[in-house]
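If your schedule permits, I should be very grateful for your opinion on a structural question. What I wish to show you is a protein chain and, alongside it, a tokenised description of its three-dimensional fold. Would you kindly read the sequence against the tokens and tell me how you understand this chain to fold? Here, with my thanks, is the record as I have it:

===
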Amino acid sequence: MINSLKSYLKVGTVSALFLTTFFACKTATVQTTDTEGAKVEEKTAGAEMKMPIPIDENVKVGTLSNGMKYYIHKNAMPANRVELRLAVNAGSILEDEDQQGLAHFTEHMAFNGTTNFKKNDLIDNLETMGVRFGADLNAYTSFDETVYMLPIPTDSAGYVDKGLLILKDWASGVLFEDEEIDKERGVVIEEWRRGKGANERMRTKYFPTLLKGSHYAERLPIGKKEILESFKYETIRNFYKKWYRPDLMAIVAVGDIDVAEMEAKIKETFGSIPKVKNPAERKNFKTPLNKEPLAKVVSDKEATAIQLQLYYKMPKKAVTTYADLKENYTSELITTMLNARFEELQKQASPPFLYSFAFQGDMIGRDLDALQLYAGLREDNIEGGLSTITQEFERMKRFGFTTSELDRAKKQVSKRYEKAYKEQDKTESKRIVMSYVYNYLENQPIPSAKFEYEFLEKNLPSITLEQVNQMAKSWVTEENRVAVLTGMEKEGVNLPSDDKLVSIWNEAAKADLKAYKEKEIATSLIEEVNIPKKGSITNEVSNEKMGYTEFTLSNGAKVILKKTDFKNDEILVSAYSMGGHSLYEDKDYIAVSNIPAIIAQSGIGELSGSDMDKFMTGKTIRISPYISQYSEGMRGSTSPEDLETALQLMHLYFTSPRQDKDAVASFVATQKGFYQNLASNPNYYFYDQYSQLMANGSIRSGFPKVEELEKTDWQSAYKMYNERFANAADFTFFFVGNFDEEKMKSLLETYIATLPSTDKKENFKDLGIRSPKGMVEKIYKKGSEPQSNVRLSFAGEMKQYNPKDEASLNALAGLLRFKLIEKLREEKGGVYSAGAYTSVDKYPVPNYNVMITFPCAPENVDDLIAASIEEVDKLRNGDVDKTDLEKFKEAEKRKNEVEQTQNKYWLSTLQGLYYYNETPESIEKNKSILNDLTVEDVQNAAKKYLDTKAYIKAVLLPETTTEEDKGE
């Protein structure tokens, strides 16, 4: 995970008293005009910059007498929910030599029996509340911390109390029973197994270089298999006793709660945990700086790409004052401009790299920051990509940035913080809660979004080009550099040596470089004189119950509008027409399915892709065309402020798609770089083969074939694109969000009603692609690690679509998930995770697929498949647990409650009504179907659709596996 300060500073409001003082000081200073006054102003501003960053007044922060800290924030998005977190300032870095992996193992044991919740009781209790294991209830362990995540409904008596009691048990009441420890060994080892592969093998080789001299290189959170298999019970209990203590913990509660009431509950629940006498020192570990550059090049036969990591290390600086915050903005401006340059280079006809992204932020551990870069290199231009990237750092150091670049970056950064400020009362609790976790763990500041935006707007103009360039120059140093290059072992691919990697990096300082230059860009997408003459709205029908309006425009296009207040600064956009690439032959599939991505990269009209990137700076617009199998259209989002520009862009995607041969060449080169080696990875290979199996070998399944991309007639592809977007009368447009309705109508008349149209109506073509019938067994062999992957699919056609059957199949998948976790994970210890998923579609004919999937050890494949099929047969035979069904229904109800307060839910729902020719009444009907679903309904669906004598079994085994290894 990439941590950056901006991720944690975007919520809440600042006190009126503070702002009054803040701006009174500013006003008084500005009024001074003489020389002495100027000195006073400078002195006042300097004093102001030393002020501490204020904590958002809406968060209650306190510390119990035992040392446990707490954070409480009332936030009603979503309503009737609270996000609870237990943050433990202890992770794998604190493990003794014989404890490697036990910080993470401890996290697992928190779900396997505590003082107040015996084995399985905890998960049963939470699932009864509608809290789903894995999806909602979860935890993670890293080098320096362990964090437990628990969302709880607040609208039922006792739920919050029970949630806090669970957190208390995790903090001080995990039982660590011998039998449960032994059972969990298998689960954790399966998680260890899941992480094996090329990336893990290469990481093992380069971590000692990347983290040279650091304890972090020796304490990966997953630990060592031999320790996980054999550690003594007391060893893990000792870790828990030593490091799980109140002075190393914080409780965070963000949600629809009463702050005072929650504070009282926290004090009552957690205050009784005794303070530890003579606690062990919680040491902070460091990663040393390095005078000479460090480099490591590693390769693996299963690697799928050549990836570069560059680091310019620097000591971490605490962000506590106004001056620190302003410096943080300066850093953000630099990386924004640097990434814009990288993106421009990537769009060249022959891009020097596949992607490149830089940021300034945490390295592993808490003592270092770094200017970091991650890039994907082309296998036919490895050294050229290295040179280009390192020379861009040198160009930044030598010449800095330009005034126009800085102006654009300021707009872009300002827009980010403005959006957070505008959405401060509509931000979901789960997006807020981790900011407090990291305030506790890493002392990251937690001001309100209002304070930060107003502070940014006040200080951003005073950040000068000279200051930006001076900071950028200071980052690019001779010392404290680390380079890592990972790649595939493949004939014709020649990775440089460690020394060569350093040499190329060093050569950048001697390169003959010129300062960055750019041309002037347009100020609008459509000039005033070219704005279309308005069409009209010819019909308007409102659905009061669902709160949407359907318009018919003068060119025949339909528009569906739903105004909401779920977000202040969001409008979601979608449009579709039936047809898609199903109307074209297989030989045209690659061309017609990929041309929208090329057009999106090409720009619009006279503006190239890079010109468009610059033009869009400071605008919140994401609109892109697509052509899928059965439809074509556009999807994206915008802000109310940028709505007209977004509609202009949609208009131009219909009427003036830009043909750019450089964009075509760049796209093909980039796609080739991404896809040509994917099959080297066992899991990618398995996904590709399984997709082709389920589509009976159709060319329209699996990953794109590189050779097909290279020989595609892209000129014909443009013609196909124009055909798909030639008739607006065949399109339905959707806008969901916060818009002015009268303004929207006017814009629709200008930009949508004026799109070209005909009387022609199209539908998709049934290509006859179906899943295989009967009992199908496929074994695929790939990879060298002892890893397997299993997919069991019950798929086929439905005689006719039935919403009750779909609800029953969804419930079946939910019940299967419960049983698979119980059987395969908890009882057998054979998997880390197991899933069951349902998909039902009406097109091209009504069809369904219920899929069971899990990774496991090769020797356990047959046993776990047999156990899975046994659980399916139990459901078919009527062994349906009514309690499990009620838990599933409660979880669905809770999920739906939250989703119905989101724009994306309503966009999806409304588009589904039109796409599938359903009626608005069907939505309420489907809800009642779920509520009324019975054990008999589920059993009937299992008998009807889950035939255990005719299903698809696909298994991935390592290449070296024998039948004996597999357990046959």
Confidence is low (pLDDT under 50) at residues 1-41, 963-968. The CA atoms of residues 817 and 836 lie 5 Å apart. The two ends are 41 Å apart (CA to CA). Residues 322-346 form the longest helix (25 residues).
